[in-house]
Write a structure and sequence with these properties.
Structural class: alpha/beta
Number of strands: 14
Mean pLDDT: 94
Radius of gyration: 19 Å
Strand content: 15-25%
Strand order of the largest sheet: 3-2-1-4-5-6
Helix content: 40-55%
Length: about 325
């Protein structure tokens, strides 16, 4: 049996975690690519030496040669830098844009039929850049964000109520940043609204913690950022695509009229299957929720405009 092939660009903590989760489930063979000589090869070998213990036959290979990603079904882009002390937003945008631009060119060259999943921050802006650079159909360029944010929201709810995380469902829309839009109205425990289980101020505190979820981990780690939960989020997207599960997952996708938004990448519920985004699911939002989503989308547009000022390949968002 020929397994699907997934390329993971960037062999850092997130990339290596994604690769580990994929092969340990025998979901696909993985090519772990990075420009740092020896690092992807070393991590791939380490992970393969664990395969007799974990009981999987899926393979991981490490490489510095982008030609090795040829014929990948999915390409996951985790390459990029985290914001460092003294680095302003524009420096981060410019640096990661140059990285994503270079990666996108290689993907077009070596894996032109692949589905592209972006993880590099600022997520929504980098997904826009990848779409512009590759000119792939919109269903094949997806950002990982809402799934991670919703997972954090679900955990915080479960922790607060002391219930199983398996019983908690939640939804987060909008950009992957401070103005993301957690939707308490759609958060339930075994079908029971959290509004019936928690006080208003308790729910507001959980929403705030969700918005600050990444920053909370960065503050605790002192160096680096989250990678276990982001890795698990990417895995779930990859699994739904490769196995054509058609799961409805919150992802960053191109909106062309849905939710009243046009020509902007933003986090919304997406049905993911073998062709990527099969459908964008439109929830019935209140006026307040819709306004919050519009504000979040405008922040994404602002980021794209800022990027346009330093990188001419990205047109200003309309």
């Amino acid at each position: 049996m020929t397994r699907p092939k997934v390329a993971v660009i960037g062999a850092g903590q997130v990339g290596a975690t994604v690769a580990q989760r994929i092969v340990e489930k025998d979901l696909a063979d993985v090519v772990l690519a990075d420009i740092v000589e020896g690092m992807p090869q070393g991590k791939a070998l380490d992970l393969m030496e664990a395969s007799p213990l974990k009981g999987h036959d899926a393979k991981i290979s490490g490489t510095n040669d982008y030609a090795e990603i040829k014929n990948s079904d999915i390409v996951v882009v985790t390459a990029g830098i985290a914001r460092k002390p003294g680095m302003d937003r524009m420096d981060l945008l410019k640096t990661n844009a140059q990285i994503v631009k270079a990666v996108a060119e290689k993907v077009v060259q070596h894996a032109p039929q692949s589905i592209l999943i972006l993880v590099t921050n600022p997520l929504d802006v980098m997904t826009t850049l990848a779409y512009q650079m590759t000119r792939f159909p919109k269903n094949r360029v997806i950002g990982m964000a809402g799934l991670l944010d919703a997972a954090r929201f679900r955990y915080f709810i479960a922790e607060k109520l002391k219930v199983s995380v398996k019983d908690v469902e939640a939804m987060v829309l909008g950009g992957h940043g401070d103005d993301m839009v957690p939707l308490p109205r759609f958060a339930t425990v075994k079908g029971v609204s959290i509004a019936d289980l928690l006080k208003k101020e308790e729910i507001e505190a959980l929403v705030t913690r969700t918005r600050n979820g990444g920053a909370e981990i960065v503050a605790l780690l002192k160096q680096g950022s989250a990678y276990y939960a982001p890795g698990a989020s990417v895995f779930q997207m990859v699994q739904s695509i490769l196995q054509d599960e058609k799961k409805i997952l919150p992802c960053c996708a191109l909106l062309e009229g849905e939710y009243g938004l046009k020509d902007v990448f933003c986090g919304v519920p997406c049905r993911l299957g073998r062709r990527g985004v099969l459908e964008i699911v439109e929830l019935k939002l209140t006026e307040e929720e819709r306004k919050s989503l519009f504000n979040s989308a405008e922040s994404v547009r602002k980021g794209v405009r800022e990027l346009s000022s330093v990188l001419s390949v990205v047109p200003s968002a309309s």
